[in-house]
Amino acid sequence: MKISSIGVTLPSLRVTNSDLLRQLVEVNQGVQQDQIRSSCTQIETLLKKAGAQTRFYRDRSRNETALPMLLNAIGQALQGAEIRANEIDLLIYCGVGRGFLEPAMAYFVASKLEISCECFDVTDACMSWVRALHIVDHFLAGSRYSNAMIINAEFNIYESGYPELMKIDSLQKWQYTFPAFTIGEAATATVLTKSDDVWNFHFRSLPKHVGLCTIPLNGYRDYVSPETSDLGLNGVNKFMCFGEELSRTASRAMTRFIKETYPDPQGFKKWFPHTATARPYAHAAQRLGLNGKVYTSVFPKYGNLVSASIPAALWMAAQENELHRGDRIVLCPISAGMSMALVDLTY
Question: Mind listing the pLDDT tens digit for each residue in 109-132?
């Protein structure tokens, strides 16, 4: 399997850390000033600690919506791969952002593209794009498929509680709400073609940490134990994540995973994590002797792009001349669940 091309489209509303803090003040008119000041100080400290600087949202004043940006990313990817839409044999929509639970979003996109091909969705939080890669690798290994496309439209910020999540209920709230302020939005499309290149996939799941990051649906309590009380602290359809605990746990687990899987991790040109944060990756890279090899430039500029993070990173690194054809690289996402993956390939 080969990555033939990647297309990326971002919305136009650039939101800085200062913009977020101003919005927090506006949302909390009537709240005591000392509570507002304390919340702003706490969130500003956490943003700096994470390495967050800016992120991009759909501009509601310009009527920006997800579909045109997804179609633009698809157009870029098709042009880069030098194929037409009707040459796609398999279309997979992945990720969190979606307009429908049923049917699969892939059907809506295929209908818009006026193509008929195999369609389905893959949902596994920020791991979704890598899970889809694994599936495509198996499909392209057979004789039936030649071209596949993985797409996502990670437009979640308004749908998952922004700006309501900024309302100050208690100072403890930021322990499980702060990560929402690092989210960015993007659409990506990845064209994969049949080739003899070998990809090696390694996955590891740690489901005991499932409660660290959730977006509960209406009726979710019917699917969990009655004593469970901390899976929907922000309410239904609202993002909740114990970010610091998730980051610490994931960093330790991923470091062990890498050491067990790769005796010589320095042998790869570049490592591409799902960057839900930036600075903690620098510490992990140092422990593994990977200084300068872990690509984290997406997060400071665009925020946490959920399942779009790694394709956006590959696209961005190629544009910056930090990724070249023939480079041996590793994809190393960590996702809610918790799940981890290590995928080594030749770009």
Answer: 999 999 999 999 999 999 999 999
